[in-house]
């Protein structure tokens, strides 16, 4: 496989609303990001994935776009965007834009036109259906944000499809005009010098709603090949698809370079491990390290040279990793570092979600009035109606709700963590007084410096990028694997527990590459791991 820049970098995801507010209105913005580029340069990242910054009525915080070629007023102006691009490029940081084209906002001009009537030239940009014979919904497709995926339009007597909120009508990708309009818009951004696209729920664009098909539709890959040709294929860009329904076989269809589709996809197998099979994400089940090992190592080995992995623990939709697979109490720092080492040592392109690099945690709420996220609020209403107790719903929200990741970034110990001088749009976790960027930068043992070291090691050591992966058989609570590259061999060892564990190696553990606490080797082949201990060693 040819070597590409996007395999060698670490990507940092910014959720602009919550990153940094420069003007005191309580909402993060583009100038806030520009102010913190030096911080990101210090971390060493090579690209930023910017969650949507386009004009939007914010029904789903920017994932409902009303104008793809304008900046959300709260976030700034197109001049600010151009300056962000220029300033980031000066620091060798590329900007990867969020491409949300499964749907638009209902306030997009295409939809405003389409609603005008069946013969409007934009009507077919969206998915419309007549009521079923008995006058009811066209079929029983559900919306991800609760309730049916169909909304009735009184004026025309038809329903339109919305796989997400009512204010996010689905685009009709079967219409070639829609696809062309999307490609033109992508080229507008490519001409500005962006570094690529993260493609929102891209596996839904091949849907055939009347057959009940949403993910992985039959024309999906044809569309992506067409998109590649019409837009980014001529350039050297990072493209990553958000694909909840991907298996390793499917991931190869997207990311095998010979197929000319995407650089890589986000797979979600490890994200679903705390969910009961066949149920909703809110139906929790206890996590099991053994399952995490199976899921992650399967993806490490099965793509081979026919695809490329993305590596992530966090994004704006999933809870904070240290609260999920780590111990966010007594061992917060140790476990946050362990999780960083475990992930960054795997094969693929690592992504860091804002705040992960300082070990930010989930934020528990006690009442639904403290929630902001549309998914959470709709689910709450639905489950109250179904008779669930408020306590059990809130308990699920505290484990899985999207606001956990969306609480503003804590920059220092001053009021509102230095995120804003005004009133934040969503309150911060109260632990910002202890967990914040200033604190992390001042403490040489902070989580931040482990991330910084991992990012630097990746630049210095090709084995981290290109080495092959092999899982080591161990006790359940230990997650260990090898990387191999051109005669070099590294061993990664992590203890996912609050107890000591003994680890014995088949190889001599010769030289520590990185560790999250001083490692006490009893011999070349044995070590007693302290709770949440992690290290990487060169072996023979
Ligand atoms: C993706 C986004 C999520 C959004 C949804 C609809 O899953 O990551 O935040 O709500 O798509 O656009
Ligand atoms: Ca602002």
Report what the structure shows.
This protein has 540 residues and is α/β, with parallel strands linked by helices. The protein contains 17 helices and 21 strands. The protein has helices at residues 5-8, 30-35, 37-43, 78-90, 109-114, 176-191, 220-230, 248-255, 289-302, 321-324, 332-344, 374-385, 390-400, 403-406, 437-442, 447-460, 462-466; strands at residues 11-14, 47-50, 54-55, 67-71, 94-99, 128-129, 150-153, 158-161, 196-199, 238-242, 264-266, 310-311, 349-353, 468-471, 478-485, 488-495, 501-504, 509-515, 521-523, 526-529, 534-539. It has an 8-stranded parallel beta sheet. A hairpin with a 2-residue loop joins strand 19 (521-523) and strand 20. Helix 12 runs antiparallel to helix 13. It is globular and about 80 Å long. 48% of the residues are buried. The model has no long low-confidence stretch (mean pLDDT 98). The structure holds alpha-D-glucopyranose (GLC) and calcium ion (CA). Calcium ion (CA) binds at residues 21-23, 25, 27, 29.
Instruction: State the distance separating the first and last CA atoms.
Output: 27 Å
Mean pLDDT: 98
Rg over CA atoms, rounded to whole Å, is 23 Å
Number of strands: 21
The helix count comes to: 17
**Which small-molecule ligands are present, each listed once?**
alpha-D-glucopyranose, calcium ion
Given the C-alpha coordinates, what overall shape results?
A: globular
Oligomer classification: single chain
Question: Low-confidence stretches at least 5 residues in length (pLDDT < 50)?
Answer: none
Instruction: Quickly give the structural class.
Output: alpha/beta
């Amino acid at each position: 496989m040819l070597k590409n820049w996007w395999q060698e970098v670490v990507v940092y995801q910014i959720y602009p609303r919550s990153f940094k507010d420069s003007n005191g209105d309580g909402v993060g913005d583009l100038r806030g990001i520009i102010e913190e580029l030096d911080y990101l340069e210090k971390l060493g990242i090579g690209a930023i994935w910017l969650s949507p910054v386009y004009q939007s009525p914010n029904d789903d915080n920017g994932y409902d776009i009303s104008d793809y070629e304008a900046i959300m007023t709260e976030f700034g102006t197109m001049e600010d965007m151009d300056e962000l691009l220029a300033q980031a490029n000066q620091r060798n940081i590329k900007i990867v834009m969020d491409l949300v084209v499964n749907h638009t906002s209902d306030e997009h001009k295409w939809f405003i036109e389409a609603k005008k009537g069946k013969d409007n030239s934009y009507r077919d940009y969206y998915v419309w259906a007549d009521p079923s014979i008995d006058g009811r919904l066209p079929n029983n497709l559900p919306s991800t944000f609760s309730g049916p995926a169909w909304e009735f339009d009184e004026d025309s007597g038809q329903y339109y499809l919305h796989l997400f909120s009512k204010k996010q009508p689905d685009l009709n990708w079967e219409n070639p005009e829609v696809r062309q309009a999307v490609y033109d818009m992508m080229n507008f951004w490519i001409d500005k010098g962006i570094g690529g696209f993260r493609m929102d729920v891209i596996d839904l664009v091949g849907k055939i709603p009347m057959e009940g098909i949403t993910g992985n539709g039959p024309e999906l890959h044809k569309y992506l090949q067409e998109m590649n040709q019409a837009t980014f294929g001529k350039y050297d860009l990072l493209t990553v698809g958000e694909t909840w329904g991907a298996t390793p076989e499917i991931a190869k269809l997207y990311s095998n370079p010979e197929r000319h589709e995407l650089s890589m996809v986000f797979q979600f197998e490890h994200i679903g491990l705390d969910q009961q099979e066949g149920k909703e994400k809110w139906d929790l089940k206890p996590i099991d390290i053994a399952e995490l090992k199976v899921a992650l190592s399967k993806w490490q080995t099965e793509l081979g040279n026919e695809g490329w992995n993305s590596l992530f623990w966090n994004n704006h939709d999933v809870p904070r990793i240290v609260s999920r697979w780590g111990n966010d109490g007594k061992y917060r720092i140790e476990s946050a570092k362990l999780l960083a080492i475990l992930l960054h040592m795997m094969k693929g392109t690592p992504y860091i979600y804002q705040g992960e690099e300082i070990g930010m945690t989930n934020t528990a709420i006690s009442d639904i009035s403290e929630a902001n996220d549309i998914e959470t609020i709709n689910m709450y209403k639905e489950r109250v109606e179904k008779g669930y107790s408020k306590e059990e719903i809130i308990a699920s929200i505290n484990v899985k709700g999207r606001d956990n990741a969306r609480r503003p970034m804590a920059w220092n110990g001053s009021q509102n963590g230095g995120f804003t001088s005004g009133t934040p749009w969503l309150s911060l976790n109260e632990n910002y007084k202890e967990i914040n960027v200033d604190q992390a930068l001042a403490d040489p043992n902070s989580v931040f410096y482990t991330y910084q070291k991992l990012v630097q090691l990746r630049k210095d050591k090709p084995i981290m990028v290109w080495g092959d992966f092999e899982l080591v058989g161990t006790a359940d609570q230990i997650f260990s694997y090898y990387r191999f590259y051109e005669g070099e061999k590294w061993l990664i060892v992590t203890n996912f527990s609050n107890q000591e564990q003994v680890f014995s190696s088949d190889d001599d553990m010769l030289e520590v590459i990185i560790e999250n606490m001083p490692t006490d080797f009893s011999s070349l082949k044995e070590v007693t791991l302290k709770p949440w201990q992690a290290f990487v060693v060169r072996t023979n």
